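Entry:
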Amino acid sequence: MAPVGTVKQDTKGTKMTSPVQEFNPWRMAQSQLDAVAEKIGLDENIHKTLREPQRALSVSIPVKMENDKVEVFHGYRVLHSSVRGPGKGGIRYHPDVTLDEVKALAMWMTWKTALMGIPYGGAKGGVSCNPKEMTTTEVERLTRRYTSEILPVIGPYMDIPAPDVNTTPQVMAWIMDTYSMKRGYTVHGVVTGKPVSVGGSLGRNEATARGCMFTTMSAAKALDISLSGQTVVVQGFGNAGSIAAYLLYDQGCNIIAVSDSRGGIFSTKGFDPRAVLEHKKKTGSVVGFPDTDTITNEELLELECGILVPAALENQISGKNADKIKAKIVAEAANGPTTPEADKILTDKGIFLIPDILANGGGVTVSYFEWLQDIQAFFWSEREVNLRLREVMNRAFDAVYKVHTDRKFDMRTACYAVAVERVAEAQSLRGLYP
């Protein structure tokens, strides 16, 4: 893995670089592709093409802050591949956003959409900022200016953004409105993850977590394990993590630990995650929930449990701590939480991994449903959305598990084999233009 500088950001949004080496998600994404390409005998020319993004856009985003000063933020939109359809992928607002991170996330989206069997390619966007330290007005100004800068490369048949870390349905509504104002008419399908009142889909908010639950149920069935009574640990208590926690709780699981960016809580007796969510809404963190012990995010990952759900950021399970993971099933609700080195350690330990591009594929699947509804101007019931989602998730899990058992691939390699072969087939059939 190539060394890179540690990127930090001051309160004004200016990047500062130190010479300390750190994890590089783009190198990780490329190495994952390289590994599966060798195993499946991927055509060399197609391999070369898929190792690089189709388009990477970097933009400067000047924003007038509430104090009347202008701060300049840095934003990105990357299209990895459109060979199977329009680009699809979220936009994240986070201080640590870099071009390499966005490129990696775009590549993972290519594999995820292919694995889910939906006609999209992979894309991703991000802005290096800390929205938690900004007012609502500042976030809106940032969003609208960022949208204006990337407007030439997005569209309902080109590249369709969605929510990601620290972006919300409201942010998507601002993007949709800004795009529509530039076009001169309302374009619902330019983004997904919108509020229902402006073209969003019922069931979209819970989709990532619900898909994670469906794949966890499939894994438990494949392993002949009952979900009832299984202890669950969730790292990251945002949208995906909190909803995954209470959906698994509803299936009879015992939630014993959860965490957010400020720390974690643990109780051997377990607790109701919905009550924890209410506590977080009031206090800003899960920490301090009654009758629980405080633990760190690092300690949380190493707890003995039936199911571990990493639902935070990348690089959480690495070569440094993988040998300490004690879960039976690891369901990756986050993108890229496990490094390739850690993959091998978990496999050798007999831990069943549900890779990110499978476990969290519910979000992009219901985004596809939302896009279909927008294009047709015909909307479905929440029950219909959830039933269709379950069908897609089960079909994807079955395809991966078959490769896992038939070809003796670990689960991540099996996921990539299914996804990359589908993208490669489309690339071969389409050829190169001109």
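Residues 1-20 have pLDDT under 50 and may be disordered.
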